[in-house]
Amino acid sequence: MVLHLQSNLTLSQGARLMFYALTPSETTFKEVEEVQDYVQQATPYFVGLMIIELVVTWFHKGKTVFRINDALTSISAGILSRLPELLGRGIELTGYIYIWKNFRLFELPWDSAWTWWLAFLGVDFAYYWLHRMSHEVNMLWAAHQVHHSSEDYNLSTALRQSVLQKYFSWIFNLPMALFIPPSVFAVHLQFNLLYQFWIHTEIIGNLGPLELILNTPSHHRVHHGRNHYCIDKNYAGTLIIWDRIFGTFAPENEKVIFGLTHPINAFEPLWVQCHHLLYIWKTFWGTPGISNKMSVLFKGPGWQPGKPRLGCLEDIPIISGNEMPHNPQIPVWLQLYAVLHFIFILGVYLHIFANKSVLSEFTILLGIGYVILTLSSVGLMMENRSGVAIIEIIRCCLFLFLELGSMTGPLKLVTEVGFSLSLAFWGLQSIMKI
């Protein structure tokens, strides 16, 4: 498999990209088509920073900060969230461009540093309200809860993104489309997301005066906590000033316990994405009265009849500080098998993204389906669930039959032998259980 992950960034620019430290002169474009795919180009920097975090925590604490099951689930969510982009321009840009072309009131100069900085503030302000509403409106929380479902807090957690959130997040950015060119908006939409990667870590403590202005790891740890003092706090993207202005700020004090207030105890990525939608469906039909049914959808996820809009803090389980994350024990060989096949499917995913302009729509759809099947199977392995053998037999047969990955030479031979051995192994497993 040949990867063509093109990058127009220097090493210095790539490093600064992760901290919103590129200048207007480096990231100003006239047409939206000229804007680079910064998120895709950031992939090696994601990996590099995670390796640094791994090494630092190992030497500092003598243990790894990553659990294989949780980290694979987070990275799977990140992959799933980007797959729709293989089929065309994202809805966030499509909706923005439509408003810009048909309803803009005036046009700020695309090559002005003032426009760049105004877009920086506008995107961050819009993100604050998108993020806040994603916690305060149950239907929006159904998407955003994916990001909070990890009981760990490390850089892999930043990749745990929702497939569905982008289908409503674009609405919050539309006011900017009345005057800010799409090319400028497209840059900051990516930068705002990339900045939030490095703040998902426990290895960085208090950053002094920067804590007053910027969203930092300390502030964002609070946001991911299920302690009572952490609930519905620190919604910032890049600037913490919005939380300070609108009364949603809380500093970090006692030890933060991460995850959902009611953990889902699952690693299968499709269930992680969709479980809250099923909960809403059941609650909606089980709640009497039209008004109450609408409240189930549009009030907070903790709302119940007779309760405040966002629910009661007293209904949230009290944190003892001794909570242990969900961590099913599975054989080492199965963990190794899952990791190897996960690395392979990550390569397939990168290959499809790098070559999407020359691949047919059918090939892309086929690749998307196979990626989803693999990620789901790996998640079920991490849960030590029955039925994995059948899924793996199907998955290995599909790979060998369809020859996914466009490989040649020794790599093709090694991969085919690997998948053939995997197929034989799971076939024997199925026979032995009959």
Automatic annotation (TrEMBL):
Its main location: endoplasmic reticulum. Signal peptide: none annotated. Its cofactor is Fe cation. Its EC number is 1.14.16.5. GO terms for cellular component: endoplasmic reticulum membrane. Residues 117-248 form the Fatty acid hydroxylase domain. It comes from the Eukaryota. The chain crosses the membrane at residues 113-130, 170-191, 332-350, 362-382. It is found in: Endoplasmic reticulum membrane. It holds the Pfam family AGMP_C. Keywords: Endoplasmic reticulum, Iron, Lipid metabolism, Membrane, Oxidoreductase, Transmembrane, Transmembrane helix. It is an enzyme of class 1 (oxidoreductase). GO terms for biological process: lipid biosynthetic process; membrane lipid metabolic process. Residues 334-408 form the Alkylglycerol monooxygenase C-terminal domain. It is a multi-pass membrane protein. GO terms for molecular function: glyceryl-ether monooxygenase activity; iron ion binding. It catalyses: 1-O-(1,2-saturated-alkyl)-sn-glycerol + (6R)-L-erythro-5,6,7,8-tetrahydrobiopterin + O2 = a 1-(1-hydroxyalkyl)-sn-glycerol + (6R)-L-erythro-6,7-dihydrobiopterin + H2O. Glyceryl-ether monooxygenase that cleaves the O-alkyl bond of ether lipids. Ether lipids are essential components of brain membranes. Belongs to the sterol desaturase family. TMEM195 subfamily. PANTHER family: ALKYLGLYCEROL MONOOXYGENASE, STEROL DESATURASE-RELATED PROTEIN. This is Alkylglycerol monooxygenase. It comes from Chiloscyllium punctatum (Brownbanded bambooshark).
